[in-house]
Amino acid sequence: MAFALLREKGATLDKQKFTWRELVQPPISKLDDDAFTRVRIILMNGIEEEAKRFSHTFARMCPDPALQRTLAEVRRKEVHQQVMVNWLLGADHSTLEQTIGYEQVAIEVTAAVAQKEPDPYLAQVYRYGLLEDFDHMYRYSALMDRLEGKDANNILQSYTDILPGRPTIDEHRAPEHDLRRPYEKMKAHPLTKLHALTIMAGEQQTHNFYMNVGPTYADPVARSLYAEIAHIEEQHVTQYESIIDPAETWMEKWLMHEACEVYNYYSCVQAETNPRIKAIWERFLDYELGHLQIAARLFQEHERRDPAELLPETLPDPIEYKSQRDFVRGVLEKEVDLRANGADFVHKKDEPQSSLDYRKQLNSAGSPSQTASAGYQWAPGTELKLKVVNL
Amino acid sequence: MARTQQREARLGPNKTGIATSPVQIEKMLAGIDKLATPSSEGNERAIAQMRSQHIESAEPVGSVPPPTSMKGLAKSGAKMMLGERPQLLLDKLGERLAVERTATRLYDALIAKFRTQPESAISDGDLVRIRNEEAKHFALVAGCIEKLGGDPTAQTPCADVAGVEALGLIQVITDPKTTIAQSLHAILIAELTDNAAWEDLIALAEKMGETDLVPEFEHALEHEAEHLKLVRGWLRTLMEQESDVLKAGSKQ
Questions:
Q1: Could you point out which of A144, A225, B4, B210 has its C-alpha 20 to 30 Å from the C-alpha of B184?
Q2: What are the distances in angstroms from CA A231 to CA A42, A44, A201, A236, A278?
Q3: Model's pTM, two decimal places?
């Protein structure tokens, strides 16, 4: 059934109340819950993190005290939502197990988005990023196997492959080759804008996560691998923020952020299998509809424009939370040798010299991703199922 | 008994293994040999080599602070001249102090869980007594460090490392999801180590000539031996009870 975006009023801010007891709920079961429940939790933490960071940045550039106050009021709710969502992850996840979850988000959600993206160029951008996160999954799985003696597939539940992608060692590019062409705000399909915000938010939180947890490892191999992959995630943030039209006004951007949150909670509600978690998604969908009403009203006041100019009348089909293996393997087969040349993609034989030089210098004292996964081949139950004697 | 009925190992929807995803795992393994060629040659030895490089250039965890009192300083100086390295004793005492202080908090968390979900096999009085003995051991070691001129508020290198070791135990025991038996298993790790560590500390004090410390340390070791016996007994009883419950359930 079509979801009428602006007709749904949602919960007003005065109804959006929390207690600490509510905010810190029992976490999901790492063992019994479906992997996609964890995927949704991780992504929605990223969506809320972006909502918060955007609101802060907007407020810092906003000379209107009344608007600053409204931003603060809405932001407070976003932060409460983020806490409730992020605290659903159980403490029995090791940091590497969480990391596997983060990469599963990057693979499965980006693959889902790439297939529904109306703009062919941006679909290519998503496929390009996808193969890099796909490789990160392989590197981290090797590290988890060899550091903790654990099988990444316990987290992935066989939905996502553990195979080499575009080698992480080759993902290091000169900064100018991380920038892409933005969509044009007056021409782009609303779904294009929702996709861009969603994937950008996901990559940003992944970068933040690796930057925070990397130094918590004692093992120099783990510290180095997190440093290297955090570096690529920063490149991904650069890539995905560059596809968003910088000519959008602050109010336009706020409106689209709220619409993006609505769209993502709506997608979670449609797919969730855990009734307790589904109730949280439903509650927060209602809250975000309330936030969207506020942003839409202020958009009208400040820009004298109809929010319907930007927003679709009904929400697009929800993000599909399912294994995208066939699509990913197809992309792997056809596009693993692509490299970036400015905003375009070329065969690796045509890669710009500036990226080759940058990479050569950065990898000149060794490559953590190559070291962690030297000769690694995943097998159900870890590589020790394939070979016992090695050292 | 209600507690056991709620929390015994149960068969359920665990999704971690491949057997619960027959369709997906078949697709996952299809064509894997062609796709799984590693991008770098070698094996785990690459990791070992990288670790070796870092081990060779690593700085130590930190240092033992010098004794603070004149008496302690004189004694420390004398021993160091004799090559007996009293900082080793101060470091290991610092470790014991830290471990006993953490153990007190582990039992605090275990007692909270036990009082919420009592087990007939375990005595509240025993748990509280063990907790208080751990706290007394902490005070005992703090006093010994002061006598040697050390600073019992400092964190020594071995204390720091023991704190890292204890992180997993704290996570298990304070997790509301874990059972009393699972928490006791974590406590067992602490108690086994405590017993070995007190024995080693007594041997070290004797070797260092600090024989006046030994009687109190031996008394502490007696406590720890009893703690270990109790914990192992409780764990065994809980396992047997759970087995009986499951057996009875399967007959119904």
A1: A144
A2: 20, 22, 16, 9, 34
A3: 0.95
